[in-house]
Amino acid sequence: MTIVGLARLQFGVTTVYHFLFVPLTIGLAFLLAVLESWYVATGDAAYRKLVDFFGRLFLINFAVGVVTGILQEFQFGMNWAGYSRFVGDVFGAPLAVEALLAFFLESTFIGVWIFGWDVLPPRLHALTMWLVALGTSISAYWILTANAFMQEPVGYALRHGRAEMTDFFALLANPQLWVEFPHVEFAALATGAFFLAGISAYHLARGRQVTLFDRSFRLGVVVALVASLLVVVVGHAQARHLVRAQPMKLAAAEALWHTSPPRAPWILYASIDSVHRRNSHVLAVPDLLSILAYNRTVGRVPGIDAVQADYVRRFGPGDYVPPVFVTFWSFRLMVYAGSAMVLLAAWGVWLVAKERHLRARRYLRAMVWAVGLPYLANITGWLMTEVGRQPWTVFGLERTPEGVSAGVGAGAVGTTLVGFTLMYGAVAVAGTYLVVRYVRRGPGASEPRAAPAPSASPEPA
């Protein structure tokens, strides 16, 4: 592989791995805050037990997420120095605010939350978890502010061969940010909710502490349904935004080699031939692509050939077509996983409403496996977003090969890629072991055993 390919692969591997933990941190923090608030309002010790149990799982996830996230920013100097020099004046500002404000907020109050159970008043202690949840969302906002600039540059001027910030508030009002941020937030909430419901379903299916886990299961499926539906709504807004902002990404996500007919169908399945630029064995839903793009049944969607010709006129000669196969199938896997999430959550809410969920063993077992659906949707969604932007690091301003560090060889990048992968693998094994261990043992398993009550009768001699 070339230095560009290796650098992209390394960043992709580390980013995908790190993003396994970010959505759960955001979503589960909010749900923990809700559970603890119920504990404070009702005084019911069952909610305290749930907070303690799921809080331990949250802390394991948070710790692994921090470790895996450290390498992300180092890569901007290691492998992507050209990108950092070109856009660092813009890109660095939101990342700096995220580190100095949001990350310190969430990490500080996580510490207060851990050690403050027997020190702080109950309401104040619950507030610390709400501040953690707020910090995770603020952190996501600033990181997505930086990413949104890469997707749709705003608030900058080109001076001396660099992109320099001219309007900080334009970054905050970036249209891409305001379709991207809600999508990530609701997806994170759905991830936390499916995690809560899936772990609860694991114990309910085995008849363990049914009264306890019934409460967390009910909360999980309701939030999962609401969040999954909101993901669909905001995702539709993103699709409409792509028509204007990045039509090539939308065309690649649909493997739309030529401009669609007036009533554009949405492809459910197709065999993609990127060499000859054609599709076969197509299964499609009539008019649905026009609806996704324009909110109406009639509307042509520009094809790859038309957008390529337009980009050549705007940006000069070059191939502006991203990897169509990856973009097409990552988008569909995201949609299929999201659709399954909506259906499973809706089924769960119906079962809860009818008080049938405790007897629905097959559904409970399915919900255990459904914990993986949000992870699949999150990762494939990011693949579609980032791969579909190629060949740009910053859309319309810098192409990917221009962002790679000039003095770094393929051997160095390959070596660090192998080293990072092995290190991440070790962290994954440790994190998975701890999560599985705590889940199987259940609440209270890690707490010290109470001393036995003294016997009422004297011990025999």
Features:
461 residues, mainly alpha, single chain, two-stranded antiparallel sheet, 6 strands
User: What structural class do helix, strand and pairing data support?
Assistant: mainly alpha
Tally of alpha and pi helices: 16
Reported for the largest beta sheet, the result is: 2 strands, antiparallel
Bin the helical content: over 70%
Shape: globular
End-to-end distance, in Å? 80 Å
Topology, please?
Layout: H1 3-19, H2 22-42, H3 45-78, H4 81-115, H5 122-151, E1 156-159, E2 162-165, H6 168-172, H7 177-205, H8 210-245, H9 247-253, E3 266-273, E4 278-285, H10 288-294, H11 304-315, H12 324-353, H13 361-369, H14 372-387, E5 392-394, E6 398-399, H15 400-403, H16 410-441
Antiparallel strand pairs: 1-2, 3-4, 5-6
Describe this structure in words.
With 461 residues, this protein is mainly alpha-helical. It has 2 domains: 3-243 and 326-441; 247-322, no CATH class. Helix content is 70%, strand content 6%. It has helices at residues 3-19, 22-42, 45-78, 81-115, 122-151, 168-172, 177-205, 210-245, 247-253, 288-294, 304-315, 324-353, 361-369, 372-387, 400-403, 410-441; strands at 156-159, 162-165, 266-273, 278-285, 392-394, 398-399. A two-stranded antiparallel ribbon has the order 1-2. Strands 3-4 form a two-stranded antiparallel ribbon. Strand 3 (266-273) and strand 4 (278-285) form a beta hairpin. The longest helix has 36 residues, at 210-245. It is globular and about 65 Å long. It starts with a helix and ends in a 20-residue tail after the last helix.
